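Notebook, bench 3.
Goal today: get a predicted structure for HEAT repeat domain-containing protein from Actinomadura rubrisoli so we can plan the truncation constructs. The sequence was checked against the plasmid map this morning, with no discrepancies at the termini. Length recorded as 186 residues. Pasting the sequence as submitted so the record is complete.
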Amino acid sequence: MSERAGREEEPATRPSTFVSREGLPGVRAREEVNELLRAHDPEVAEENLARLTDEHSPLLRQIARERDVSARDPHLRRNAITALGRVVSVENLNVLAELAALDDDELIRASALTVLAGTGLRLAVPLLADAQESRSPVEAAAGAKGLAALADRLGTDAVEAALRPGQRQPGPAETSGGETEADPSR
């Protein structure tokens, strides 16, 4: 019998070195944003969302678009969407509109619709009106509630004016085709 057979060999080890995250600012920034978005206590979550600024927008947009994040931590993506609505910019609104119209997850679409309605901007009206026609009850409810919230905030006339012609509901003096009835005084 050989000498080796009597002893167990130790596995080979690879030398490693400690890597400081301070040298990786992108990783550290992502960890900080993730930590702010993961708060479960409503008061802490509200405080954390208030701490997010335009500086955080690129990371928030990235998180909001990451579909695989929903499987691991569904609140993270929805909270990023909420934060985008608080830091209103063209880029953030474009991401919210994209998510509201095109995302595969109905809960994400509904979250984006709700946040868009919360911005109080008339540009959300066509998206909300389209969502009312969705087969998804969650998305349809978000569209209807969003339009109602905007009507309360901006006024019904402003919301109706922002609707596309095909989306407008006929008023009492209009026919079903959207044309006004002939004036009997002519």
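The first helix runs from residue 3 to 6. Confidence is low (pLDDT under 50) at residues 170-186.
Flagging this for group meeting.
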